[in-house]
Amino acid sequence: MADYTANKEWHSNYSGQGLVIIGNHYPEFAFEESLDNLKAAVLENEIEYAVTQDNDGRTWRAYNNRYWPTLYLIDKQGHIRYVHIGEGRYKETEAAIQTLLAETYP
Questions:
Q1: pTM for the predicted model, two decimal places
Q2: How far apart are CA 2 and CA 5, in angstroms?
Q3: Which range of residues forms the domain containing residue 55?
Q4: Crossing angle between the packed helical segments 3-14 and 90-102, to the nearest 10 degrees
Q5: Which one in 13, 86, 87, 102 has a CA-CA gap of 20 to 30 Å to 4?
Q6: From residue 78, how far is each of 3, 60, 100 by CA, in Å?
Q7: DSSP class of 15
Q8: What does the alpha-carbon distance between residue 14 and residue 23 come to, in Å, rounded to a whole number?
């Protein structure tokens, strides 16, 4: 399962409980820098969560990201609480999502 497929499922299952998914698109190739191409890919893959275009890599570098895909779960206080690099660990990631959603917000 591609990460965007898992993200789509998590968005569908948990957005009503407060989960917000933001995909960060940092292009590898010149054609990927086109906003129209990104919009077409989002439509083609039926992605309903937010996707940002990070052509200059500012967000990528702000998280000291080195690998794609990397998933970050950020709690209700704004702290990174879970990081997973690469594909897989979907059950573990979903369990972490459920744990964070169950926490109260002061």
A1: 0.89
A2: 5
A3: 1-9+26-84
A4: 30
A5: 102
A6: 22, 17, 11
A7: G
A8: 16
Number of domains in the chain: 1
Q: 63 is written with which tokens?
A: 């998280």
Q: Which two tokens stand for residue 104?
A: 């109260």
Contact assessment for residue 73 and residue 81, using Cβ atoms and an 8 Å cutoff: yes
Domain contains 72: yes
For residues 90 and 6, is the Cβ–Cβ distance under 8 A? yes
Q: Is there a domain that residue 93 lies in?
A: no
- Asked if residue 91 is part of any domain, the answer here is no
Give, for all 106 residues of the chain, the pLDDT tens digit.
Answer: 456 789 999 999 999 999 999 999 999 999 999 999 999 999 999 999 999 999 999 999 999 999 989 999 999 999 999 999 999 999 999 999 999 999 998 7
74: its two tokens: 């950020």
| Residues shown for the chain | 106
Q: CB burial class (10 A; 0-12, 13-18, 19+) of residue 81?
A: middle
2 residue type, one letter: A
